[in-house]
Amino acid sequence: MAEFQTFDAGGQTIHIRKDLRVPMRDGIELAADAYHGVDDTPRPALVALSPYGKELQALALTTPPQRRPSPMWDGCIEAGDIARVVEEDYVHVIGDLRGSGASEGEHIGNYNAGGVSLGQDAYDFIEWVAEQPWCDGNVGMIGISYFGSMQVLAAAERPPHLKAIFVSGGHFDFYETTYHGGIMWFMPRAAREGRGGDSGWAFTDSVTSRMVETCSPDELRKRVAARLEDPDVAAWPNLVHVLNYPNHHEAWFDIVMNDLDGEWYEERNPITLAPSIDIPVYLQIDQGRGWTVDGTIALFDALQGPKKLDIGPYPPMQSRPFIEEHDKMFRWYDYWIKGIDNGVMDEPAVTVHVEGAREWVTGDQWPPKDVEYRSLYLRPRGKLSTDPEPMAARYAAPDGFYQAPLTVTDKVEILKWETAPFEKPTELIGTGAAHLFAEIDQPDSNFILRLWDYAPSGQRQLITSGYLKASHRELDERTTEGNPHHPHTRALPVEPGTIEEYVLRLYPFAATFRPGHRLVVELSNAETLADEHNALLPPDAFHLPVGRPVTHKIYRDADHPSRLVLPFTTRTSEETV
Predict the structure, then answer these.
(1) Distance between CA atoms of 250 and 246, rounded to whole angstroms?
(2) C-alpha angle 70/412/536, rounded to 5°?
(3) Are the C-beta atoms of 99 and 207 separated by less than 8 Å?
(4) Tens digit of pLDDT for each residue in 290-302?
(5) What is the DSSP letter of 366?
(6) Per-residue b/e over 127-142, b at no fewer than 16 CB within 10 Å?
(7) How far apart are the first and last CA of the chain?
(8) Which domains does the chain have, with CATH numbers?
(9) I need a labelling partner for 319 at 20 to 30 A (CA). Which of 76, 90, 211, 539 fits?
(10) Sign (positive/negative) of CA torsion 166, 200, 1, 82?
(11) In this structure, are residues 412 and 484 in contact, taking their beta carbons and an 8 Å threshold?
(12) What percent of the chain lies above the pLDDT cut of 90?
C-alpha cells in the first residue's frame, strides 16, 4: 500500500505519495512516487522514468545543485526540480523502470532492447497516471539524459493522455551514444556501473545481458574470443574483465560486444521512431556535448509535429540535481497542457546561442542562418590558411607524431595548427569536416580532433570536436560538403604505409571568433584526462585508447590537401538578441 508523507520545502508543503504500484499490461508492477500540492485538486502530471532509482531523485529536495567539476556532482540525479514542479501546480511522478529500483520485471540489455519495449511500459505508466484522482488527465514528461530518451520512446507509442514533451540532453542515436566515430566511449559504463561520480542504475537481480540470453554458450565464447583479438580492447583491463564476467556488467558487456552499427542499436533508435510522434516536442541541448547536439538536431529534423529546437551555451554539463531549463519547460507545458496563450508558438522554431559573441540567433531551421562552406588548409609550421599548399609531396614533408600506448606512457602527443588572429568578428554555425590525408604503420588507429577558440590572453574554449577510428573511414550516401556521414557497419583495416583520406565529422556548433582570437585545431589519437574542457566532464567521459604504438604522418601538400571545411555564415538571422 502506498505511504503518504509531507515535506516542507522552504515554506511550501509538498504531499508525497510513496511507493505507488503501477500495473503493466504483462502483469508486472512498476514503483513510483508522486509529489503535489496540499489540496486534492486534480492537476496535470509530469512523468519521469529511468533505472536510476526514484529515491536518488528525491535528493532534489535536499541537495543543493552541483556544477562540474564539483565532487558532489552526481550524473544520475536528473528527474528535475521537485519543489519547482509542485510550485508550478503540476504533479511530479517519478518511476522506476522494470528491473530497477523497487519495480518488478526483468531488464534485458540497454534500454531493455530484446525485452519488453520501454516505450510500451511508458505508455501504460502514463495512462495509469492520467486515471488517478490527483491527475486531471493531462500528462507531460520531465528529465534529462536517460529520462529525455524515455520521453521520445514514450511519445512514439502515442499514449492518448500524453499532450507534449520537453526533452533536454537526451541520447538518440544509440550507436553514437557509445561509439563516437567508431571509437568506444566509456561514459555509458559510468551510467550503468556507477563509476566516476555517477550513482548508476538501481539494478535488481532481474537484469540480464541480451547477448547471454540470445547466444548459445559456444557462440558466445567464440564472439568473446574474437572481441579480445582487438588489441585496443585487450590492453584495457576493465574490458578484459567485462568480457570474461558478463553477469556483473550485463548492459556494458552487450555494448562492448557490439562495436558496429546495425539492428542491435536501431531496434530502439528514437530518431527512427520520430516520424510516429505527433505531439508537440521541445528539444534542448547545450553546446560542448558534440554527438548529443548532433543527435538532437537529427531528431528535430525527423519530427513531423509542432517542434522547437534550443541549443544553449557552453559549458556542456548541467547541474545535478538537474534544475536548468525549467522556465522554458513550464512555458511550453503551460501552453500545450494548461492552455495558456503565452505566445510560445509565435516565436521562431530554432534558437541558438553563439559562443564568442554570447548572443542568441533564431530561425526556422538548423542552421538558423545561410552558410557557405570554406576550407582552411593545413600548412607548414603549424599554420591554417585559406590558401592551399602549392608544393608537391616531395617538397612539403608531412607532419607526424608517434604515440606509444598509454600502458607505457602518460604523455599524449598532439599536433596543432592555428590561424592568424582574426581581424573582424567571424561567425560559424553548422556542422563541419576535417579531411586528413594520413599514413599510419598499423592496421588501425584513432583520429581525435578538437577545435579551440584562443583568446589573446591565452585562455581557450572548446568549439567542437570530431572522432574517427581509421578502420571506420568508409562514407555513405548521406555525405555532402562539410557534412560527412559514416555507416559504421563494417571495419576496413588499413594497409600500413598507405596514404588514406580520412574525413572526420565535426559535431554541430555555433561560434563567433572575435578580433584578436585564433582558431586552433588539435589532432591526437588519445586524449588528456584533464584540460579546460575535460575537467568539466565526469571522470569516465573519455575514449578507449589505442593499445599499440602507432606512427602517424599527416600529409598536407598539393596532392594531399588536408583541410578543415567549416560553415561560415553568409546572411543575418531572423533575429539576434
Answers:
(1) 5
(2) 15
(3) yes
(4) 889 999 999 999 9
(5) S
(6) bbbbebebbbebbbbb
(7) 52
(8) 3-202+267-340 (3.40.50.1820), 371-576 (2.60.120.260)
(9) 90
(10) negative
(11) no
(12) 79
Distance between CA atoms of 300 and 295, rounded to whole angstroms?
9
C-alpha cell belonging to residue 539: 571522470
Instruction: Write the single-letter amino acid at 69.
Output: P
Interatomic CA distance for residues 220 and 211, integer angstroms: 8
Give SS3 for 479.
coil
CA–CA dist 522, 281 (Å, integer) = 37
pTM attached to this predicted model? 0.96
Q: What is the pLDDT of residue 571?
A: 61
Q: What letter represents residue 422's amino acid?
A: F
Residue with cell 543527435: 295
What's the CA gap between 95 and 34, in Å, rounded? 9
Enumerate residues 6+ apart whose C-beta is below 8 A from 294: 173, 176, 431, 505, 507, 508
Look-up: residue for cell 520521453?
151
Does 289 have pLDDT greater than 90?
no
Quick check: 472 and 536 in contact, CB under 8 A?
Answer: no
- For the cut 50, the answer to whether the pLDDT of residue 59 exceeds it is yes
Among 56, 293, 31, 100, smallest CA distance to 198 is for 56
Helix residue ranges, H only, 78-216: 82-87, 118-131, 146-156, 174-178, 187-193, 210-214
Q: Which among 101, 80, 119 is positioned nearest to 328, based on CA atoms? A: 80
Helix (H/G/I), strand (E/B), else coil: 162: strand
Instruction: Count other Cβ atoms within 10 Å, centred on residue 172.
Output: 27
Please tell me which of 17-26, 209-218, 264-273 the model is most confident about, judged by mean pLDDT.
17-26
Mind listing the pLDDT tens digit for each residue in 403-457? Answer: 999 889 989 999 999 999 999 999 999 999 999 999 999 999 999 999 999 999 9
Q: 549, 322 in Cβ contact below 8 A? A: no
- Asked whether the predicted pLDDT for residue 351 surpasses 80, the reply is yes
Distance (Å, whole) CA 352 – CA 366 = 9
Residue 294 parent element (H or E) = helix 291-302
Asked if pLDDT for residue 9 goes beyond 90, the answer is no
Of 471, 494, 509, which Cα lies nearest the Cα of 179? 471
Distance CA 20, CA 30 (A): 8
Q: Is 383 helix (H, G, I), strand (E, B) or coil?
A: strand
Q: Are 242 and 249 in contact (CB under 8 A)?
A: yes
pLDDT, tens digit (0-9, with 9 covering 90-100), for 379-407: 999 999 999 999 998 888 999 999 999 88
Instruction: Find the mean pLDDT for residues 22-36.
Output: 97
Q: How far apart are the C-alpha atoms of 86 and 50, rounded to whole Å?
A: 20
Q: Are 288 and 311 in contact (CB under 8 A)?
A: no
Instruction: Give 323's Cβ-side CA count (13 Å radius).
Output: 15
Cell 566532464, residue located: 537
C-alpha cell at 69: 567539476
Q: Which residue in 126, 159, 144, 19 sits closest to 74, CA to CA?
A: 144
CA angle 504, 448, 265 (to 5 degrees): 65
